[in-house]
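Re-running the complex after MR caught last week's input typo. The corrected sequence lines follow. Everything else is unchanged.
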Amino acid sequence: MTDMSDAERIVGEAERWWTTSIIDVQPGRIAMRGYPIEELIGRVTFPQMIWLMTRGDLPTPGQARLLEGALVASVDHGPHAPSIAIARMAATCGAELNNAMASAINVLGGVHGGAGQQCMELYAAVRRRTAAGEDLRAAVLAGLDGYAAIHGPIIGGFGHRWHPVDPRTAPLLALIDEAAAAGEIAGDTVAIAREIEAVLGERKGKPIPINIDGATAAIFAELGFAPEMGRGLFILSRSVGILAHAREQMEQGARIKGPMPKSIPYTYAGEPRRSLPADDRRSS
Amino acid sequence: MTDMSDAERIVGEAERWWTTSIIDVQPGRIAMRGYPIEELIGRVTFPQMIWLMTRGDLPTPGQARLLEGALVASVDHGPHAPSIAIARMAATCGAELNNAMASAINVLGGVHGGAGQQCMELYAAVRRRTAAGEDLRAAVLAGLDGYAAIHGPIIGGFGHRWHPVDPRTAPLLALIDEAAAAGEIAGDTVAIAREIEAVLGERKGKPIPINIDGATAAIFAELGFAPEMGRGLFILSRSVGILAHAREQMEQGARIKGPMPKSIPYTYAGEPRRSLPADDRRSS
Amino acid sequence: MTDMSDAERIVGEAERWWTTSIIDVQPGRIAMRGYPIEELIGRVTFPQMIWLMTRGDLPTPGQARLLEGALVASVDHGPHAPSIAIARMAATCGAELNNAMASAINVLGGVHGGAGQQCMELYAAVRRRTAAGEDLRAAVLAGLDGYAAIHGPIIGGFGHRWHPVDPRTAPLLALIDEAAAAGEIAGDTVAIAREIEAVLGERKGKPIPINIDGATAAIFAELGFAPEMGRGLFILSRSVGILAHAREQMEQGARIKGPMPKSIPYTYAGEPRRSLPADDRRSS
Amino acid sequence: MTDMSDAERIVGEAERWWTTSIIDVQPGRIAMRGYPIEELIGRVTFPQMIWLMTRGDLPTPGQARLLEGALVASVDHGPHAPSIAIARMAATCGAELNNAMASAINVLGGVHGGAGQQCMELYAAVRRRTAAGEDLRAAVLAGLDGYAAIHGPIIGGFGHRWHPVDPRTAPLLALIDEAAAAGEIAGDTVAIAREIEAVLGERKGKPIPINIDGATAAIFAELGFAPEMGRGLFILSRSVGILAHAREQMEQGARIKGPMPKSIPYTYAGEPRRSLPADDRRSS
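Corrected-run output:
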């Protein structure tokens, strides 16, 4: 009925099991997105390579410079950040660098690392409205309502529990403005971000300034990255700080270090001391 | 005896519990290694920032360019690499990007990601000998003996199961030679790497060329990174490929994808089918 | 204004930072949920301890027996399951047992390990309707509609891509029926599960039998566990298989084993080989 | 030349790629170590299943009871333990249960979770000496010397930073003695443990009592588990506490919780504030 043997059919199925457009590896040949690796090494920057791998083609130098600014800005926020604390505690448990990094990166999810992603979704929602001809202010108001319905009243990317003004925002916005002036990006998302900042400030009666997440989200959106990738790029950046802290902690040499010194007890709020019932529970 | 209360003593101990020289975060102020973040954004490259965070000061442009070449070279080796395969399988299980990346980065340990680290230790051992006046060839022979005693006969960083010649090696060595010619690095480690390559080739009677791990190890050693950090830098690089593959797999949309199609059964090599003994094991 | 010093206030805040009702640890004293550990060791079974830790009190022997059946049933589904394959690949990369287990457990999320959780949510939705007096069939039909609206047409816990009849289902349902007959559980959730099975079978015109996830979900729901905990208990069970496979793979000794042998290439579906543009991209 | 086609050869190689003696899965049939799963469910306990999966055959009831005591004893040590703290911090970052558990289990390595493994290696080293006819005291002294040469002066499994007497030790030793009296185990390892305790106490001039790691190590060794598996069994036990704490933290609802409240700053010990050199570092 068929001239192809079962084995050939199975091999064919297996060969299609993993399929990628990212890399072609043959004996003696490696190409990413079509470009031979030997042409890329020494000629493209690391941010250009990140773009090439995740987007499929090379960015312009201006696009790469904007991405680079975002990658530089987010590397670290200190030992009070859970991701950094986890990396350091892991190191005191004898974890190797890759393991300490994995435990830490693993928590850069929807809450810790996802503010930027949610912010990109907000920008995109507003942009769909302005693209359809809606007024910027009206589009922002509608976007904020839609956001609050899903994520609650705190708008990821605006305001900061710690910084009255986030020192990373101004230089990032300056990079965006520069790129927009040079025609490298459209500049419409950063306008949306500033309008959101204005609306939130008016509502609260005090400044709710764009923070690092809101600023990098604007960059990633201007550059055409999908919201999901906002988190991915943040992880590449924060991994640098996680690595540096894990390594520093290893060199400090402490063993099995909990979150706080034992002189500060945690609070036990459970049942008072009690005894097992007299009957042996195992017996039935 | 002391005018400091218990509470003050405990707070003092707690404040010293986490100590870092990497980052200073105060309300409205962030500085890495002393440099205000607002000065770094837009002015240092991402590889310079990686250097600053892990080393404590800024590299020269030539040093940064060499580090960048190594970071670009190692991003990916395709879906047959366990780290990449794990990221893709994780994505089919519904893992989010950070989780897929964590599961994958977690395996970049002593074997998968550690060849470069071991290679750096070999280079360092040889270099200690040549620095003490020993002849290069003699130092390499002694170094290889010491290495084999610990890690066995396969020398990490030389030869490749897949590539007769690793296409990443030549452009990386060219970058090293260029930096050495410009006086940015000493160039003595790359000389050691080439001598090891020569010795191994003579011993085997066929070329055992420097591979990606051996070449990046030479770069990291020339730049003064500790062997342990070789693995850390490799992780930063390979994370890019892991991210790209996890994201691509998510877009392909398969669910719960095992390593091979089910048309290829695994081999069961255990006990033949048997029955439990008649007595109820739970009863005693 | 206050007679409490700043330091005392800070210590108080720190002592309330971590609060738990699970365990009380004092020098020389450990109690879980109020029971001294020295009374628990040797007197409660491991499943009873799992129940105590996650629920706050001890189960009856019948409840513990039912939980134990579910824990036994889910330990493993072989090397084609991504979680098991990941553990084995991790082992070939030199990962230690805890690291191999972590990479694997990490993917037991919404898709791979979450079918049971979604199934518990479906049971609960139907049960809210029957508790409000709705007819079982009507409640099931409404519940299935609600489920499909969120999760799509495939009902987690019913049918199996691999097993025409899941051999784990019958003995699990027998345990449930036995416990219901003994008055240990209400038995209403298993009735819902059987009605769903009947409806799905009628709709498809072929049996869509309850599978392992549907059966253990019925057990966990009958025992009063929250849906989220269904996944947690599954993880405790599957961890056993993950451990066994990681350890077996370590003993087999292979190094850096990808998902398939290299004789089966993956498919590259991307850009054909191309060259970088002539201008040096780094120069601007 | 050969009557087997290339495709058949490749399929054969692929079928041998993953090989296991643990589980046989066929459509409609699942057997662990030869036993059909439908015979195991409801008839073996969870500790018996753990033994079966990791050892290949069923334990006696007495062996299972001893293993169960060890599994019950190690489930938790409170929020000051890094593994528990990591699980709780992960939960505040929005990690799901499997992800929070993975980040935590990942750090149960050589230091945090490995004391028992090292202790088992010490017991085994002493036992090889007594088996060769050496006097118990002499064998212990030699074993301690060998241990200290590798791991330093702190003997894993003896003494405790927190508990003057570990309350878990006595009931575990009682279980061992009971099993030895019943002929279920040889009882020679627990004698070694007690002799080590005596020697350490004499050396230090104060009690250095067997702790939880030393007691469970004695159990695992008496039961014939390899030292590496000591860590694996500990992970299965501690996973219960990790799960309970992750879930409790989720219910408490805090977001992005660091190790300590921000009212306790960490210590910055690095470079004072400084400015970038005037030249643009990007320009060369």
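None of the earlier attempt is carried over here. The radius of gyration of chain A is 25 Å. Chain A has a mean pLDDT of 94.
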